[in-house]
Amino acid sequence: MTASIIGQALRRPDGPAKVSGGALYTADTPVAGATFAALVGSTSPSGRIVGIEDEAARRAPGVLAVVTHENAPRLAEPAGAAQSWLPLQDDRIRHEGQPVALVVAETLEQAQHAARLVQVRYAAEPARLEFRDHLDERFAAETNFPADTAVGDVDGDLAEADTVIRHTYHTTDRHHSPLETSATIADWDGDQLTLYDATQWVWGVRSAVATEFGLSPGEVRVLNHFVGGGFGCKGFVWQHQFLAPLAARIAGRPVKLQLTRAQAFTAHGYQPGTLQEITLGATAAGNLTAIRHHSVSPTSIADDYIEYAAISPRSLYGCPSIETQHRIVRVHRNLPTPMRAPHEGPGMVALEIAMDELAYELAIDPVELRLRNYAETDPSSGEPFSSKRLRDCYREGSDRFGWDGRPMEPGTMREGHDLIGWGMATAIMQTFRMPASARITIDRAGEVVIESGTQEIGTGIPTIMPQIAADVLGVDPARVRLVLGDTDLPETGGTFGSSTTLSLGSAVHDGALRLRARLAELAGGDVGLDAAHVGEILARSGRERLSVEGSWRPDRGGARSMHSYGAVFAEVRVDEDLRITRVTRLVGVYSAGRIINPRTARSQMIGGLTWGIGQALLESSELDPHLGRYLSKNLAGYLLPVNADVHQVEVAFIEDEVDLQASPLGARGIGELGAVGVGAAIANAVFHATGVRVREVPIRPEMLLD
Ligand code: MOS
Prior knowledge:
Strand order of the largest sheet: 3-5-1-12-9-10-11
Bound molecules: dioxothiomolybdenum(VI) ion
Distance between the termini: 65 Å
Number of strands: 24
Largest sheet: 7 strands, mixed
Mean pLDDT: 96
Strand content: 15-25%
């Protein structure tokens, strides 16, 4: 018997191509006769366009077309796209950076040069920019989940609580900032459209673009081979994905359109800042009796996006009364969108700082407080959890970090000029599951190909899908290859919601089981599938290869509350005089079901934890309050953690967990979980170091001055 291949730390087969520059990302795709598009963005956040002078641009070298609202063909309102409107259709300005003109030229340089020659005059109108200035205009809407929930009697339980803490917390606007900005290449052949697109969801793009251009889905093919990060900004279909095919129609040539780094701040969404009000009531013994969590966040002028920051307390702690609420405020800004980790990411900053405050109010160790409120069933729905090993995360995390013996009192650990602090927080992320399908083919040489229209976004899918198939088939995973990123292949959901491993993995698992059964049938009994044997079986049945379709749908029956969990521990050192914070140690221990590949899983969590350092200390998309423009539309001004900011990071999973309620693989979601809890763990560590309670991220040195 061979050892299980699932669970092995296999290396990435696509690693060498990526580090050697051999991997082709969307904009690298060679397309014969391709031209280049450049977008001109509005410099005003609101009002109307009153004049466009584009003669100079039209006469500039290499220019093939200049498209504005004055000459663009009228298109239908987009369906299935992030936003309900398209630019270049009217004179209305809805946010700074909104495309107001598009130039197509023979070369990228010519397009960018001509784009600078387009002169647009605006009649500006007063803009609403900061949602916190317009809270009286907040309103309730509903997108993915209910906006409000309530169980129990929060007011009654707060009135009887021994201790009540009530505070307001703030998170800031952040941008995804993947290395590869969004890019689309549109190539028409009559009414047949091919799009090479940096997307997290080729199927979503196909359907939205087909509808927009009056094509059948079969007339649109969407492809990508590698996606250079997305983190949510490539999850929905944005305007450039319609503008590229529009421009290609007008120019009569294939068009490449890649967002500049500056445009990546406004041409797709961002993670909106939040204002969160939390009230916790508890007994003197530290049992929560009431949780009230309300969140407000901005949305665009035309469309609704809700950051469900108050979603976590619906499921996290055992508590008889829980009330959650979400409101949004319209501002003249681009539409927010999910960003790893949406909802739980910003929400748990607030909830977990609040829990730390409660721990200090009651003088109970922060880990102990969470254990006293451990939920054995979902506190809102009463449903059992599919599987939950959070208690083990607290225990193992405490051990690995050395939490026991931590002095409770802030400001008591120091070394030289460094004030040292230890903080912790819980991580929770809902598990999303999507229907998926895959085709698996084995040939006489024993080579296996898995085909599925999923996306390679850096998470390790080309490593672990072969691993899953190899495990079932009993073949060497090096002989199994994944072909992906193409709507001509079997359909899957988007690469978002931390759903791909468990969803597509379950379809691959199903396909491999079917393939094995078919081979056994042909061979007249279940046999070992070594290459020689497979060749013999196929030859005997007169086949070159054998293909089967595998699929998976999440079952709706047997209601279970499904989440992945973790416990995050942080050590910070705050310079006594300069008040600069460094995160010197992070330990994250996670309960996420069965781990298919500990190497790629660990990579994802390290990425999430690193991003948490950004959330806690660095990242903020500052907006000019008059111009409505992000101040630093580049990676010099938008601060992300770099290697020098990342010290010791330790990641572990609860190894023997298998969640067969979530998926036949036993896996749940992990991708976004790593970015949850870190912000609060660091903020709590900063309090422990300095005694200064900061209820806002990112934490800046000036917030820590006495
Ligand atoms: Mo993720 S924010 O669902 O790409």
